[in-house]
Amino acid sequence: MARKSPLSEVHSKSAAKMVEFAGWEMPLWYTSITDEHLAVRNSVGIFDVSHMGEILITGDESLQFVNYVTANNVAKLSGHSCHYSVACNAHGGIKDDVLVYALGGKGFMIVTNAVNTEKILDWLRSSRGSFSVEIDDVTDSTAMLAVQGPSAQATLQSMTTFDLRGLRRFGGELVHLAGEEVLLSRTGYTGEDGFEIYMMNVTGGDPTKALRVWKAIIGAGTGFGIRPCGLGARDTLRLEAGLLLYGNDIGEETTPLEAKIDFVVKFEKEFIGREALVDQKEKGLRSVRVGLQLADRIIPRQGNPILKDGVEVGTVTSGTISPLTRNAIGMGYVPPMHSGIGTELEVKIRGSGHGVRVVEWPFYDAAKYGRSRTQASAVSV
């Protein structure tokens, strides 16, 4: 039987389209993927992401241990800040892409993709060795929400006395929302400004805290046109922003160098997979991730071959029709010689070739959309 979010009552009452994902029953959409996608790009949306895994690492050597099992440098985290990172296998392949939170001097929290929680938990325990640490899976007692979009700050600011303007990207603080203490961070996986909210000691049997916070956010965002959003919009938003999906765009056979997230790899410290990545860096990459825009409005699918002059040179890993631009977009891997912006390639879809061009991500005008926008703009359904 699929696991249920503490907010399953909300989803059932809203008649959301429910699906099983990574062993969890979660909402795919409430109204439509396009409606929810554009609400986040134009104003604000709220997601239940309680299926994500939360693993606590505590003990005298928690910093040393987390630095050993992840590639980014956790020694630079302070307070309740966080960063994006990867856990690598011995060959440099990505076991998972994760968020790592400092917990105010009381250890760290690793946030995993739902599909990888048990794998990462087992791997952490097997990698513990002589490190003096405790490893605890708190996924089932944690509710997690994401409030995303250009009006996310205004929505949440009305609920707290903490000045959100001072919370930088990847900053985190313990704050009160709707009378409940939560861990709030300026993070998200949509390309937009936004926040993620962790409520600890919440279970499906007593979801009161999670329900109270969810309903309060919906109320605070009413004037901004807040929409509950499902996993469908979360996927189109992350792809449109050029962000990775584990199992599609990255996996244990893909390194962070190939995936172009080498900014999370700190070679000045020791970590699992470092030697393999140093070797790869010195020898050069055989393939790299690229953004793709098709000439035709046909969706490139995972596994579709990418060709150059009729010869297969790579593979598509993700694709969709952008709800914002209405262009067919995707990501995939090709040799570095074919990865330059503007390179003309071809994608084979259902036996037919379709012209495709290598482009930068995000796949939208970053002056008008996304957290770095400088111009006001909106697209209606």
In short:
The chain has 381 residues and is α+β, with helices and mostly antiparallel strands.
What would you note in describing this structure?
The protein is an alpha+beta fold. The chain folds into 3 domains: 3-50 and 142-238, Probable tRNA modification gtpase trme, domain 1 (Gyrase A, domain 2); 53-133, Aminomethyltransferase beta-barrel domains (Alpha-Beta Plaits); 285-363, Beta Barrel (Elongation Factor Tu (Ef-tu), domain 3), CATH 2.40.30. Helix content is 19%, strand content 31%. It has 8 helices and 20 strands. α2 crosses α7 (231-240). The chain is globular, with a radius of gyration of 21 Å. It starts with a strand and ends in a 22-residue tail after the last strand. The mean pLDDT is 96.
Number of helices: 8
What is the level 1 CATH name of the largest domain?
Alpha Beta
| CATH homologous superfamily identity of the largest domain | Probable tRNA modification gtpase trme, domain 1
Q: Percentage of helical residues?
A: 10-25%
Low-confidence stretches: none
**Annotated CATH architecture of the largest domain:** 2-Layer Sandwich
- The coarse silhouette is globular
For the largest beta-sheet, the strand count, sense and barrel status come to: 6 strands, mixed
As laid out across the biggest beta sheet, the strand order is 11-12-13-10-4-14
Compute the average pLDDT: 96
Number of DSSP E strands: 20
How many angstroms does the end-to-end distance come to? 36 Å
Tally of discrete structural domains: 3
